[in-house]
Amino acid sequence: MSAVAILKLTEPPAMVEPAVVKSGAVNRVPTVTVAAAPVSHHEAAERLRDVMRFVIPPLFGVALMIGIWALVAIKSGNIPGPDKTWAAARVLFADPFYQNGPNDQGIGWNVLSSLKRVGIGFGFAALVGIPMGFLLGRFAFMNRMFEPIISLLRPVSPLAWLPIGLLVFQKADPAATWTIFICSIWPMILNTAQGVQRVPQDYLNVARVLGLSEAKVMTRILFPAVLPYMLTGIRLSIGTAWLVIVAAEMLTGGVGIGFWVWDEWNNLKVEHIVIAIFVIGIVGLVLETMLLMLAKRFSYESR
Amino acid sequence: MTSKPIVKIENVGQTFSTKSGKFTALRGITLDVSEGEVVTLIGHSGCGKSTLLNLIAGLSLPTSGVLLCDGREIAGPGPERAVVFQNHSLLPWMTCFENVMLAVERVFGRKEGMPKLKARVAAALEMVHMDHAMHKYPHEISGGMKQRVGIARAFAMEPKILLMDEPFGALDALTRAALQDELNGVMAKTGATVVMVTHDVDEAVLLSDRIVMMTNGPAATIGEIVEVKLDRPRERLALAHDTRFADYRATVFEFLYRKQLKKAA
Predict the structure, then answer these.
(1) Are the beta carbons of A3 and B91 separated by less than 8 Å?
(2) Among residues 219-248 of chain B, which lie with CB inside 8 Å of chain A?
(3) What is the mean pLDDT of residues B25-35?
């Protein structure tokens, strides 16, 4: 009896509060306009403050960047200013998917083929790296066995692997993908392993007390517990992969945003290079944001 | 209480090897827990009461002596010895319902169909008055409510014995009292056999048939055992004025604070 009473006493506050606010809001609307005016005034002020806080500063930042850019362009003479770049961009994005033979394609194709390379290289890295991370996290022996190898290879610039890729695959395209594979795999292995090591002992004890089968432990406990760490690994991997692909493509050629940058340098279309910098930045931002949203979806407040 | 022992603990000791050599946590523990009995283990922190509970749960194995559950040696954890953990240990990616279902499925999944399993889960959650929040995630409910779900999960397995490791230790006093009363009700209804670790003297007297008082570690063992002969059902308010309640309380306090007072504490 008293248990229920106390429960009822302790639980509601969270529910009561919004109700009060809501009823207040309902009351406000039908009252006389004189009374409503200061309220809407207040709300407007609030909104203005939000705009000041969250919209104005980034706008200032962008304006500052464009300003400095324009100044540098005027001073140097050979760097295209914002106006020239904008004009070039309008022409370029009017038809992003044209195709004039293998060395002259729209910027859309270039971005897509870069993304494809990143996707394939990253996909293989995930296929190898995530199970490997699970093994390393679960078995201390494996962890100690691979630790020196990983510590040795991880700091190596992925581009150093490119010649090895060229040698093995004899072709530029798989070599670039191989480079992406190598740079993507480390964060995935390390983060997954860390996630597995950090699965709270309590959860594993629950599994032990219930006597869950290995498969159930894997799917119901280990995998969901490790997922947030895995997603962090994936995010870091994709970020690095997107950094590396530009450089790799500059070296290998073909179709791709990195190659395109180099090609436009050879054509001395500097405004296109500036556009490419923006495009690379925006694509990277979109990838990062998408993965952050995904990670948010799967993060559980555990306490 | 009936005399049939569910758990027999015979001369059990537990030694851990640490960096600074061997550390004896428990020695010479002998204790029988009968069917339908509620036993609490009480003692100062570090006296190995949780260690003993883990031994009964099978989460760790003794270095000497033997533990039997229902006549068989305890060689590991199992669903017939359900555990309610101190920090509820609900899986955060599952709703309350799914958390209980995980346990129910494991124990009854082979014999019963889905509708029956669902009914079991619902009944367990209803028993602890959590049916209104069945489909909420653990982070959406309060600490007391989480522990209710933890208790429901354990009861839903219909274990031979229920092991509770300071189940209300992390809760505020009012919530704790509410849950104690509720647990008393549920234990009466189900006739469950319970071993519970606590450091709350009132809780021990209120809930148990026997209070096992442990000496201070290292090498802790059973100091005294008090049999609590208060009638059930026990009413918190009525007991507050009961001199026998006060006497039992005094006995435990006497043991804890005169005979086993920690020097450094």
Answers:
(1) no
(2) 236
(3) 91
Q: Hey, is the C-beta of B174 within 8 angstroms of any chain A C-beta?
A: yes
Average pLDDT over residues B35-55: 90
Q: What is the pLDDT of residues A94-142, one digit of tens each?
A: 888 887 777 778 888 889 999 999 999 999 999 999 999 999 998 889 9
Which of B89, B104, B108, B131 would best serve as a mutation to test chain A binding (most A beta carbons within 10 A)?
A: B89
ipTM confidence score? 0.84
Same domain, A167 and A243: yes
Region B50-70 average pLDDT = 92
Residue to mutate among A1, A2, A4, A7, with most B CBs inside 10 A, is: A7
Tell me which residues of chain B, numbers 56 to 115, contact chain A at a CB-CB cutoff of 8 Å.
57, 59, 76-79, 81-83, 85, 87, 89, 91-94, 102-103, 106
- What is the average pLDDT across B44-62? 90
> B129-166, pLDDT tens digit by residue?
888 999 999 999 998 899 999 999 999 999 999 999 99
**A206 lies in some domain:** yes
Is residue A244 domain-shared with residue A139, that is, in the same domain?
yes
pTM across the whole model: 0.74
pLDDT of residue A39: 60
Question: In chain B, pLDDT over 70 holds for what percent of residues?
Answer: 97
Of the partner residues A4, A10, A208, the one whose CB lies closest to the CB of residue B77: A208
Contact across the interface for B174 and A6, Cβ inside 8 Å: yes
- Give how many domains chain A has, as a whole number: 2
The reply to whether A48 falls in a domain is no
Q: Around Cβ B89, how many Cβ atoms within 10 Å? A: 23
CATH superfamily for domain B1-75+195-265: P-loop containing nucleotide triphosphate hydrolases (3.40.50.300)
DSSP B109-155: TTTS-HHHHHHHHHHHHHHTT-GGGTTS-GGGS-HHHHHHHHHHHHH
Could you tell me if A132 and A149 are in contact, meaning their C-beta atoms sit under 8 angstroms apart? no
Q: Say whether B139 and A302 touch across the interface (CB within 8 A).
A: yes
Cβ of B96: how many Cβ atoms within 10 Å?
A: 28
Q: Which of A208, A212, A302 sits opposite B92 (nearest CB)?
A: A302
β-strand B38-42 against B210-214: which pairing, if any? parallel
* Nearest chain B residue (CA) to A301: B139
Tell me the pLDDT tens digit for each residue of A57-104.
899 999 999 999 999 988 987 888 888 889 888 888 888 888 777 777
Q: What tokens were used for B108?
A: 């009854």
Summarised one tens digit per residue, pLDDT across range B79-93 is 899 999 888 889 999
| Domain edges within chain B | 1-75+195-265
> Rounded CA gap, B168 and B179, in Å?
8
> Residue B105 pLDDT > 60, yes or no?
yes
Contact A3 B129 (CB under 8 A): yes
| Cα three-residue angle A249-A255-A257, rounded to 5 degrees | 60
Asked, for residue A181, whether it belongs to a domain, the answer is yes
Local structure of residue A220 (DSSP, 8 states)? I
- Contact between A226 and A194 under an 8 Å Cβ cutoff? The reply is no
